[in-house]
Design brief:
The complex is a heterodimer of chains A (122) and B (661). Chain A is elongated and about 40 Å long. By secondary structure, chain A is mainly beta. Chain A is built from 1 helix and 7 strands. Chain A has one helix spanning 2-14; strands at 27-31, 37-38, 44-49, 59-63, 84-88, 95-104, 110-119. Chain B has 4 domains: 3-317; 326-391; 406-498, Cytochrome c-like domain (Cytochrome Bc1 Complex, Chain D, domain 2, Orthogonal Bundle), CATH 1.10.760.10; 517-646, Glutaredoxin, CATH 3.40.30.10. In chain B, helix 1 packs across helix 9, helix 3 packs antiparallel against helix 5 and helix 11 runs antiparallel to helix 12 (281-309). The longest helix of chain B is centred in the N-terminal third of the chain and has 36 residues, at 3-38. Residues 152-157, 576-583 and 655-661 of chain B have low confidence and may be disordered. The interface between A and B is large, with 60 and 76 residues. The structure holds copper (II) ion (CU). Copper (II) ion binds next to loops of chain B.
Chain lengths: 122, 661
Amino acid sequence: MKKIFAALAVGASLALVSPAAWAHAFLDHASPAVGSSVPAAPTAVTLWFTQDLEPAFSTVTVTDKAGQRVDLDNAQVPPGQPAELQIGLKKLPRGTYTVRWRVVSVDTHNTEGHFTFDVRGG
Amino acid sequence: MNATDAFIVVARTLHFAACVSLTGVFAFECLVAGRTLRANDAELNDAFAPRRRLSVVAWASLALALVSGAAWLAAVAANMSGEPLGALKSSTIAIVLTETRVGKDWLLRLALVVLLGACLIAWKRRARWSAAVGWVAFGLSALLLVTLAWAGHGAADEGINGNIHLAADLLHLLAAGIWLGALVPFALMMTAVQYVGDQGAVGIARAATRRFSAIAVTSVGVLLASGIVNTLYLTGNVPALLGTPYGQLLLLKIALFVAMLSVAAINRVKLTAQLDAGARAWQAIPRLRRNALIESAIGLGVLAIVGQLGILPPGLHTEPVWPLPFRIDPNALPTGDKILSAVLVVGVCACATLVIVAIAGRRKWLLGASVVGLIPCVAFAAPPLRRAIEPAFPTTFFASPVSYGAPAVARGAAIYAQNCAVCHGADGRGDGPAAAGLPIKPADLTEPHLFAHNVGDLYWWIGHGIGGVMPGFEGKLTPRDRWNVIQFIRAHAAGVLAKSVGPKVTSAAAPQVLDFAFEIHGAQDTLSQTLQNGPVLLILYVRPVPDARLRQLAAEQRRLAAGGLTVIAVGPTKIRNSPSGGAKLPYVVGVSVDVAEALALFRSAGDGGETELMLDRNGDIRARWTASGPRSLAPPNVLVADAQRAARFAVAAPNHAGHGG
Ligand SMILES: [Cu+2]
């Protein structure tokens, strides 16, 4: 028994003890793509995240150069697509638009970020 | 750490401690006290009154679990909503409780707490049922504890791996609860034994200690095994262990655990023996109690670390700052040496273990034998390991925050031309105009050797210079631009290497094409996104447009798609998707000027105007054809066969450097 105990003590030094894994929801990709330039005005922005989201605390806004909201304020996590966030857009003239998001993943951690896209044609 | 975070750490620590204590009380009652006491007479049983003492601990733990749980939930709600903790609205808490996954978990936990309260009342009132109630309460408290595995634990890995990892977490918590949580009840029992103070009490103390130590050994075994399983999920992550706050805390946790084990070992080896030794038994009892309390105190320290770990991002999302001036790179060794040194390292560990076992067990002959074994193992392992030692820098294990894509490469190309080409040459071969005047020839940045270095090493050199000859650019280039230039020299070297890839699919180390965005039929897509569906044939061409080839492939479009192959053709940008007359060419995608320039690195001047690259799912170039010379283009049926070969190459682990946002 003594030996077993001593062996365990040595083994312990090799063991890493249960780190609770941590997972944020990061932006995986988006449509329109991050930093892209699209020929025709999109009617919605869709964001795909690396983790399932909490709809109650996940938001996204789209603004134009002047900082005016150009989205329809109807951000939603589509049913059956728990890692997606979508928002409808007004009719966009050509120009540069900023997408800002703040999301909470189901493991309660929040992340935020922003990116821009260009609309080339009206 | 902000105030909310500090609050969460304290709440988590107390909550873990409360749940561990609850589990331990009932584990002690069911597995130790209930059994040893029933075997003895009623008088002693009353004198111990362990259930009265235990139920005080249980009530206190339950109350603490409730309060700390509520505090924790409030802090989580504040973090989720972004409201400051002090100004948290009750409606926010309501939303968290009813609409989020974590809220549902907490409602379940609240129900468990209420049921445990009911058990505690029944436990006291109905002595006849106390054994049954004890087991029910043990089950409930264990549930309350193990469901913490989900707190702050995302779907980190899914599928079978996720299940194994989760099972290890559950067992880990349960074993911690049974062992750590039962220490205080054990100490209480020793107090009672001392208070009664007769020979019968010593007998009970002896029986209880035996049982408890059997449970402790089992729990420690489970803690180790589950800890090791978790280690396996971290393999290859030594830098994260040594170089991030998360890893360092984990090491501290292990150190505390080892300290607890040492105290436990003294209990087991010395004091348990004393209990059998008649007169000296009385000295052992207060020591056993003292040691159990010391272990509990260290255990509380472990829980405080657990509380802290939950709010720290683990290694993955913080760059590890490597603390040592060297690292051991087994890949630098030939296979034979690698195996030999692995075997010897295992031998060294085994002998070292034996040395400790021998010292603990006071076996002189074993000590001698294991030292004799240790010496040749170390002697033979040292030379190959010395060869595997490479210099390392604080940034050695940094991942690039800018991804290997066209925007970084385009920006990097400009930086290279301005800052590096004087020495390394416009073509990267180390023959720039300033090269002749240098004491050391600038490195040829087009050699495969470039890929032998970690990007973190390149980052350090570009920031701090090399050997006093190459200057450091820390003050001149922003960190982001240093990464951009690294992505450029890697793309440039990959492009040079690509030129020696032949028309047969090879498993040799293959250069990787950079990621890029393109537009097809008005929609946006990227190469990396497309590669998720399978291999890609990337066609790079210049004017005149290889009309005939594109139409030949288009005619076979069904067959190629059925074979899992996607074709992407990139030409000079001005062509876009509608060349002369608006007749759309098949497969041709629109790209920005940056992308066109970056991709040009993967063509050669003598390719007859067209290069075709077969990319596996990592974007590695597995085969290459050009429109000129002997390596002319492959017919569609060959492409399909090659695509199937290329599809067999495993997808490399995801690279977290590529996250957007
Ligand atoms: Cu080198």
